[in-house]
Design brief:
7 helices; metal-binding; DNA-binding; hydrolase; magnesium; DNA binding
């Protein structure tokens, strides 16, 4: 079983977030025990802002623990459609496409998605299996 790991879960752990680090670490460990952990270039890029050197980032996200996958073109199409729907429904953010791409990647590959920001994923990718905390924060 493969699980795509959302950026927020990794950043919770790397920043030792006082509210979410424990939940994120436990959920990541459980997903690892259940199968393969997957990241993509978007997650890698978003996490990189916390690291000064690529070597430090690669140590934090070792290829032996995280399967690094390219983004499928079909995920790009689905992400664009989901983003367009978001904008039509009044979504104000001009650049949340990365979140849609992460959800679309998980959806087209039939991966579970480990995230603590589940509301947008539930709305725009209803077939996704989400691993998320109950009552977790929502993405704006």
């Amino acid at each position: 079983m493969a699980t795509l790991v959302d950026t927020n879960v990794l950043l919770d752990i790397f920043t030792d977030d006082p509210k979410w680090a424990d939940w994120s670490a436990e959920a990541l460990a459980a997903a690892r025990d259940a199968g393969v952990l997957v990241i993509n270039p978007i997650v890698y890029a978003e996490v990189s802002v916390r690291f000064a050197r690529v070597e430090d980032l690669d140590d934090a996200l070792p290829a032996s623990d995280f399967l690094r996958e390219e983004l499928p073109y079909s995920a790009g199409f689905l992400a664009g459609k989901a983003y367009a729907r978001y904008r039509r429904q009044g979504g104000a953010k001009r650049s949340p496409i990365a979140d849609f791409y992460i959800g679309a990647h998980a959806a087209v590959c039939r991966y579970r998605l480990l995230t603590r920001d589940s509301s947008r994923y539930r709305t725009y990718f209803p077939t996704l299996t989400l691993i998320a905390p109950e009552g977790g924060p929502s993405m704006p």
